[in-house]
Amino acid sequence: MADPFSDLLEHIVREYAITDGQKDIDLNATVDEPAAVIEADKRAVVTEASDRARDLFPAFRTGLLLAFEAQGIGRSEIRLDDRDPDQDAIADALITYLVRFDFAESRSEEIEPGHYSYFISVNWDPLYRVAESAGIDLPAALARAASIPGG
Q1: Residue 83 CB contacts under 8 Å (≥ 6 apart), including other chains
Q2: Interval 94-124: pLDDT, tens
């Protein structure tokens, strides 16, 4: 059985992160840059984006569940402290895959020199729409995962 959270992250990476990275390569390529170099750079974007998504997947999933549970108790945002490695990874994942593509918003406050609290609020309607476009019933997946102790 496919994992809807993994499928969602894969869709966001494929349709947004990789597409943006490859467009950036095209936009910044010089006229005299060989096509083979440009294509190699584009393949590297795919590999790097896929590897990073695989590394950040657990934090991405946890962050979605935290945001969903917060919404369920009337909180529009979650607070993440970068001094906690798990929370820092969640902030990284949500900012990388949701905030960057307008599926969430974030703000930060310095809590001590060089350390921040990140406040992230998911824009559920656009996220649900992108999930639906990928054939993922995200509301149902979130509800199922939230009802299981330990998510």
Answers
A1: 111, 115
A2: 999 999 999 999 999 999 999 999 999 999 9
C-alpha distances in angstroms, 15 versus 32, 33, 65, 113, 121? 28, 26, 22, 37, 22
Rounded Cα gap, residues 38 and 4, in angstroms: 33
Spans of all domains in the chain: 4-147
Question: 16: part of which helix (H) or strand (E)?
Answer: none
What letter would DSSP give residue 101? G
Kindly give the pairing relationship between strand 78-81 and strand 115-122: antiparallel
Q: What's the half-sphere exposure (Cβ side, CA atoms, 13 Å) at 22?
A: 15
Distance between CA atoms of residues 37 and 79, nearest Å: 42
The string of pLDDT tens digits covering residues 66-98 is: 999 999 899 999 999 999 999 999 999 999 999
